[in-house]
Amino acid sequence: RDRGDLAGVRVLVTAGGTREPIDPVRYLGNRSSGKQGVAVAAAAAARGAEVVLLAANIDTSVLAEVASDPAVRVVPVGTTAELDSTAHAAAKGARVVIMAAAVADYRVADIADHKIRKEDSAGDAPTLALVENPDILVSLVRERQGDQVIVGFAAETVESEDELLERGRRKLARKGVDLLAVNAVGWKEGFEAEENDVRVLDMDGDVVAAVAGSKREVADALLDAVRDELDFAESP
Ligand code: PMT
Hints:
Layout: E1 10-16, E2 20-23, E3 26-28, H1 35-46, E4 50-56, H2 60-67, E5 72-77, H3 80-91, E6 96-99, E7 106-108, E8 130-132, H4 136-142, E9 149-156, H5 161-175, E10 179-184, E11 195-202, E12 207-214, H6 215-234
Parallel strand pairs: 1-4, 1-6, 4-5, 6-9, 9-10
Antiparallel strand pairs: 2-3, 7-8, 10-11, 11-12
């Protein structure tokens, strides 16, 4: 496969939502279906990239889009710790890293080794103590390989376009990424939906793309911005 504007470019994509176990049968999770990240992986492969897709708890029906694509290697992960270690290993060989996964900010402090039983709690509702997870994106930026292009997503519940961009710009500064794809999320938007509405911010906080459409259309607009970053890095 040597056609396309990302021919031969190695791209690492994370997708889906991490889950943090509470006990052997329960977890804390989020509603990410993986559709947006899988669309990024499929679009990158269609443009010639060699893709590693770290898939956090994604349904096989969603993964079907890339399952038979020889240019996409799918690696399933469960917890944030698993995503953290596999992402760092895979990032070593990647020219581009795109973190579309919804990562749990907290995990359960003490995972019970047996099912927490209602009859053991003497009528009191149990309390879960949480500890903060590492920020994978921040550490990937800290350990950036050469002139690697690193892209984050930001999922925000907001009241207005201004608030969306303002929160996006703050997150951009905190994470230190080259590009940040900002999407408004809510009960119906972003997570699980077939469509998405995204602004892509560059390092200066300028909007370099605004696209509302299918998750594949969003993926291609994001990859156009990535292509521009690669061209800039490769220009003499
Ligand atoms: O999967 P879908 O159903 O298609 O939904 C798509 C989506 C809404 C999940 C996706 O478009 C999206 O926004 N993904 C990022 C969700 C998210 O967790 O955003 P955040 O604002 O909490 O995190 C910002 C960035 O930091 C993300 O790139 C995230 O991967 C990364 N992060 C966050 C926390 C953490 N501990 N480590 C991280 O690396």
